[in-house]
Specification:
The chain is mainly alpha-helical. The chain has a domain at 90-321. It has helices at residues 2-90, 93-100, 108-111, 115-122, 130-134, 147-155, 160-191, 197-203, 215-235, 253-270, 290-293, and strands at 140-141, 249-250, 314-316, 319-321, 327-329. Strand 3 and strand 4 form a beta hairpin. Helix 1 (2-90) packs antiparallel against helix 7 (160-191) and helix 7 (160-191) packs antiparallel against helix 9. The longest helix is centred in the first third of the chain and has 89 residues, at 2-90. The termini are far apart.
């Protein structure tokens, strides 16, 4: 009997062990399935996160490109062109040569016969100076040549100097300031790369207006609208105003756009794109890059906009006003 009982107990133990092993195998299988499911879910989640990151990255890149292509790039180019044309005409030739490598054959400075040199020497606080511009010691410009020489140009409207002066301002206004005015009105609030308020205050410390970052835009808008009136007066032979009197030209707006496009290019670089960065403190000559210069777009489609198309010529009877504001007879008897 003891032998039979011992065999029975051994058989029971074997069954228990076998059952336990089967149970453990099942548990391991279930755990493996659960772990595999979790790993698969994690993999799917990571794929979704990567897809979302790629979509966000793509959207951010599209946004940056849109800002550059449709607003900041063209605005930078308009201001660059306007500023360089004016600087090259009112600055001493040796300074222009040092800055650009070019020497203008004719300029307001040369035609003034020393009047601009005298104005700069006697009015260092308000007169244009590239050195002061770089140091941000000058922003609002109420006259290009000074009151005394404006009077000379006003009283001698047919002189070569007066015609050159009016031609320069008409060219810059119609090709640069007017389209820039329209671009700012249409796109600035949607596509600007505004710096943080504290950063703006630090860089553009001379702005005291509560409008802060928008104050820079308001300056050129007001200046351009008054410049439009000045050109209309010239078209009618009225040279009382030789430059906007109530709204100065905001010189540092160019630096504002340099700051914006530099930040946008930095973001592009961070996203793996290769664009040459520009620092707002580099000399002006180094800020002129071909990819931005060629980025100007046509913003003169709005028929109600202040555009150059309004200023090709003005006809009064048999007389036509040319780009110098000088009337000529069309030969009609």
């Amino acid at each position: 009997m003891s032998t039979v009982g011992a065999g029975s107990n051994a058989s029971d133990v074997g069954l228990i062990v076998q059952g336990t092993l089967i149970f453990l195998s099942a548990v391991v299988a279930v755990l493996g399935y659960v772990v595999q499911g979790k790993l698969k879910a994690g993999e799917v989640r990571r794929e979704h996160e990567e897809q979302r990151d790629q979509q966000l990255r793509k959207a951010k890149l599209q946004r940056v490109r849109k800002q550059i292509q449709e607003f900041v790039g063209p605005a930078f180019s308009y201001m660059m062109s306007a500023q360089m044309q004016i600087i090259m005409s009112i600055s001493p030739p040796e300074s222009v040569t040092k800055l650009t490598g070019e020497t203008p054959r004719v300029s307001i400075y040369k035609l003034s016969n020393g009047a601009l040199e005298k104005y700069y020497a006697e009015n260092p606080e308000v007169a244009w100076s590239f050195k002061k511009y770089i140091k941000m010691e000058i922003n609002e410009l109420y006259t290009l040549v000074g009151d005394d020489y404006e009077s000379v140009l006003r009283t001698n409207p047919d002189s070569k100097a007066a015609k050159h002066y009016r031609g320069l301002l008409r060219r810059v206004a119609t090709n640069c300031w007017f389209p820039l005015h329209d671009l700012i009105m249409q796109q600035s609030q949607a596509l600007s790369k505004f710096p943080e308020p504290d950063e703006f205050k630090k860089k553009f410390h001379f702005v005291k207006s509560p409008l802060l970052r928008n104050h820079m835009y308001l300056g050129i808008l007001n200046f351009t609208q008054e410049m439009k009136q000045v050109l209309e007066e010239w078209d009618n032979g009225d040279y009382t105003r030789m430059f906007p009197e109530s709204n100065p030209l905001p010189l540092q707006l160019f630096r504002y756009f340099i700051s914006q496009i530099s930040e946008l290019r930095r973001i592009e670089n961070e996203m793996g794109l290769n664009h040459k960065m520009m620092s707002q403190d580099e000399p002006l000559a180094k800020l002129i890059s071909a990819d931005i210069r060629n980025n100007i777009i046509n913003n003169n489609k709005n028929k109600n906009a202040i555009t150059s198309s309004q200023y090709p010529t003005k006809t009064n009877g048999n007389n036509t006003t040319n780009n110098n504001g000088d009337k000529k007879n069309n030969g009609v008897v």
